[in-house]
Amino acid sequence: MDEKILEQLLEIVQKEINKPQIIEGISIVLSIIALVVSGISIFYQIKLNNTNLQSIYFEEIFGKYLKDKIPRVMEKLDFNANGKLCVEYRQINKEFMAMVRDCGYFKYAKNDFYYELTEKTKDLEEHLVDVAGKRIENKEQQKKIKLSLHKEVQDIFALINKNYQRF
Is residue 70 within 8 Å of 153, Cβ to Cβ? Predict the structure, then answer.
């Protein structure tokens, strides 16, 4: 009889040993959670690194235009005594076209932004050329035209800033 009780006890102990313990289950769940969190962390770190790289390109390409070159040429936007747009408008076009050429990197890295920027600068160029071909003697009309041209430039700046902030 002792032998049967011993066998039963050994059988019970064996079943208990083979049962997964709660602590083991918790450790498995925690390990899976740790792996998922690590994966998400790596994903966001890669995204942050790409963002920082893009930000450097934005600053390098657009910084000199937004801070210095474009504001300086826009100050010269005016009408002469004959009611014609001063020839400095050509310099405005040159600066914007140079900026678009310089940001060719974004043609491949951020295509939608590049083409929208290109379209807005072309629209500004066409508007400047259109105004330059006209004689506008009315001072109030001149003021409205200058304001609309400045608004187009503001829209271009806003486009650049919006895309810079997305990174």
Answer: yes
Q: How far apart are CA 23 and CA 56, in angstroms?
A: 49
Per-residue pLDDT, 25: 73
**Paired tokens of 60:** 């390098």
Residue owning tokens 């271009």: 156
CA distances from 123 to 55, 75, 78, 81, 162 (A): 26, 20, 19, 26, 19
Question: Which residue intervals of the chain are DSSP H helices?
Answer: 2-18, 22-64, 70-74, 89-102, 105-109, 111-132, 139-165
Q: Mean pLDDT, the chain, as a whole number?
A: 87
Burial class (CB in 10 A: 0-12, 13-18, 19+), 104: exposed
What is the rounded CA–CA span in Å between residue 42 and residue 73?
A: 45
Which is it for the CA torsion 54, 55, 60, 62, positive or negative? Answer: positive
CA dist 32 and 35 (Å) reads 5
* Beta carbons of 125 and 93 less than 8 angstroms apart: yes
Would the pLDDT of 11 be above 80?
no
Residue 164 CA to residue 167 CA, distance in Å, equals: 6
What's residue 49's pLDDT?
Answer: 74
